Amino acid sequence: MRTLLHYVRLYVLIATQYVKARMQYRADFWISSVGMVFTSIATVFVFWVLFHSIPDLAGWSFDEILFIYAFYLLSVVPLQLFFDNIWQLRFHVVEGSFIKYYLRPINMMFYYMSDMVDLKGWVQLALGVFMLIYASQRLGLTWNLWRLGVLGMALFSSSLVAISILTIAACATFWIVGSFPVMDLALKIRDFSPYPMTIFDGFFRFLFTYLIPIGFVAFYPSQFFLRPEQVPLLTYFSPLMGIGSFALAYFVWTKGVNSYTGTGS
Amino acid sequence: MNDTVVHVDHLSKHFRILNRREGLGGAIRDLFSADYKTVRAVDDISFDIQAGEIVGYIGPNGAGKSTTIKMMTGVLKPSDGTLLVSGNEPYANRRRNAQTMGVVFGQRTQLWWDLPVIESFRILKEIYRVDDATYEKHLGMFNELVDLKALYSQPVRKLSLGQRMLCDITASFLHNPRIVFLDEPSIGLDVSVKSKIRSVIRELNRAQRTTIILTTHDLGDVEALCRRIIIIDKGKIIYDGPIGKVTALFGAYRTLKVQIHNYKEGTSDQLEAALGARFGGDAAIAVEHTETGWTDVTVNQDQVPLFDVLRFVMETLPIKDVRIVEISMENVVQQIYDGALK
């Protein structure tokens, strides 16, 4: 408990300083935020065009897809906010600057991830909340305290899955020199997560459910709210999937960190 | 409790490296190759370091210096042997070890790049759980040593290399570590900043009896700070003892670098022969042509006056340019191999 408090205090200290420092680069913040908002709007636009030519997608309506997409946006917020430094891992490892993360008496993953706070995550959070409210209104969903609690739990599990997939992909750099394709592939696969898994056939559905469980990033957990009368059994395993995949990611990270030998000097 | 801070006993580190083949075909075959060779980066070394010592840990590039430092700081796992730092096995107890040590890498800062210096210090205070009184006391001491106050509000990225180095060194002592590793602390700095850094290191060592291990290429650093040096080459310790013996020997050596007009293959051999004939044939003068186009003439001034050699060279060959430098680390190691310390 004392350790947890220590880490929370430390994170708040680093993050507030970081935010202060980043405020010096205001243009950077606004441009990247606007870029991110446009990416999301473009994705929604693609859905909209898609639904103009077909009435539904494997039984899913536009509003339901919008809901799943909003859920997806929210579930990647923690990745964006707290784990954004994962993108820099291969540079640190190849250039040897990764060594400094071994030298402090705190958890290495914490220290590494605390080194960057991505502010546009907050913009994404706002966008996701807005879309979720909009989609629920159109779907006529009602929210009560219980359902909000379930939403929180579901988002927690989903974000762990999203974090784990990218962390494991990034860790490839500990063993492979040119590891960008691995990261790129993970990102491309993650882009499938706002789609209903039922549109995929047997192999891909199996892949996205069990092996690279992007189904748990948005689709399975959002079933609780969209089709509560026919929630597949799998959905109840979301928290387990989240915690399990994060445990695996942490294991891979630890293995990678321990096999790192650094550059010459 | 005894005062041994670092205990190294038959320590080795081996790396398995794939034997790479040439060309595209070789690269493809490498994918399936199991043809590894073992590189003994550190090969069966032993030494003990006591509290309060400043030890120079030196050697040429690729000698095994940074591998040893990486083992002592808990980054790498030893392949064989015993290694204890403040009674801990660094690799097995990385966090506990980190609490009692400080590390500075001359080439990369460990401070928070975008943050003002003082905020980096505050974060470190929190990381190491340094109490307010100790923190204030230390900062006060650093302010007396180097006037850092003016830098406090500057982001680290705006500091000059020398200022950043001073801040990094200060930061590494904040939590009152028992041992501090300084890796090339004066690399790339000019003479006045070097001397300031040396005096700060000496003062910090004295104030808390902090053990310091210094790796460097700069023999000047070693001479100014260390009483004991350990020289490592090809993974083995080739000298461990007082610095006096080494400086007495190499203090007298100077390298005369000359650029010869119309240099041809064999000119340096002819020069060496001519110098041998003129000044006597023993090892006092060595001539070597380097890739940069300079010809190095290394002279032991105790045996032959440098000026005489210079005049002789100028008279014998058409010389375009001349420089006189202190003997290099590589040369020292070569001389030790040749039995200079026996």
Describe the 3D structure.
The complex is a heterodimer of chains A (265) and B (342). Chain A has twelve helices and no strands. With 265 residues, chain A is mainly alpha-helical. Chain A has one domain (2-259). In chain A, α2 (26-53) runs parallel beside α7. With 342 residues, chain B is α/β, with parallel strands linked by helices. Chain B has two domains: 4-248, 3-Layer(aba) Sandwich (Rossmann fold), CATH 3.40.50; 252-326, 2-Layer Sandwich (Alpha-Beta Plaits). In chain B, 37% of the residues lie in helices and 28% in strands. Chain B has twelve helices and 13 strands. In chain B, strands 5-6-7-3-8-9 form a six-stranded mixed sheet, sandwiched between helices. In chain B, strands 11-12-10-13 form a four-stranded antiparallel sheet, with helices on one face. In chain B, α7 (191-208) links the parallel β6 and β7 (211-216). In chain B, α6 (161-173) packs parallel to α7. The longest helix of chain B has 18 residues, at 191-208. Chain B is globular and about 70 Å long. The A-B interface holds A 6, 9-10, 13-14, 17-18, 21-22, 24, 96-97, 99-100, 102-107, 115, 258, 260-262, 264-265 and B 15, 61-62, 66, 70, 73-77, 94-96, 98-99, 101, 103, 105, 107-108, 110, 112, 114-115, 119, 122-123, 126-129, 155.
Summarize the structure.
The complex is a heterodimer of chains A (265) and B (342). Chain A has 265 residues and is mainly α. Chain A has helices spanning 2-22, 26-53, 62-75, 77-82, 89-95, 108-113, 120-139, 145-171, 180-190, 202-211, 219-226, 238-259.
